[in-house]
Design brief:
By secondary structure, the protein is α+β, with helices and mostly antiparallel strands. It has one domain (about 10-140): Pnp Oxidase, Chain A (Roll), CATH 2.30.110. It contains four helices and eight strands. It has helices spanning about 15-25, 60-70, 95-105, 110-115; strands at about 30, 40, 45-50, 50-60, 70-80, 85-95, 120-135, 145. Strands 1, 2, 3, 4, 5, 6, 7 and 8 form an eight-stranded antiparallel sheet that branches. Strand 7 and strand 8 form a beta hairpin. The protein is globular and about 55 Å long. It starts with 12 loop residues before the first helix and ends in a 5-residue tail after the last strand. The relative contact order is 0.23.
């Protein structure tokens, strides 16, 4: 019989969640299409600060249409040891030119894929967390992570 997962120290929850995000790197983003069908896809964050995550998209993508109609999303990070973090929040369209430029300057992959920061296909979203939960392995017990750590 497999031993139970190591207990979680509540004081370490923000640290454990941030480490899971760092190790997992590529979360799944859940949104809802116009018919109400949940849609999940992997995304490559272009910036992460605490539990706030920035994600790029293309103007022509289904993801962009879904976020315009319903900005409520969830990101799920799963690392190799099966610890995972769920960030529930809203995807806010970033329109601040300085913020867009700063992220653009930090991301060679975006630059090689889109060519110029003025590419009309570039859409940038900031997922603002409303709730963060951490689970150790498959313990089936979520722990609420304090948002003030983000």
């Amino acid at each position: 019989m497999k031993p139970l997962p190591e207990p979680v120290d509540p004081a370490r929850l923000p640290e454990l969640a941030r480490e899971t995000i760092r190790v997992a790197k590529y979360p799944m983003l859940a949104s809802v299409d116009p018919e109400g069908q949940p849609r999940v896809r992997p995304v490559s964050p272009v910036r992460t600060r605490g539990f706030t995550v920035w994600v790029a998209s293309l103007r022509s993508s289904g993801k962009t249409a879904e976020l315009a109609a319903n900005p409520r999303v969830e990101l799920c990070y799963l690392e190799g040891g099966h610890d995972h973090v769920r960030i529930t929040g809203r995807a806010v369209l970033v329109e601040d030119r300085a913020e867009i430029q700063s992220i653009w300057d930090e991301n060679p992959l975006m630059r090689s894929f889109l060519g110029t920061v003025d590419n009309p296909e570039l859409m940038l979203y900031r997922v603002e967390p409303e709730r963060v939960r951490f689970m150790r392995e498959w313990a089936l017990d979520y722990h609420e992570v304090p948002l003030q750590e983000s």
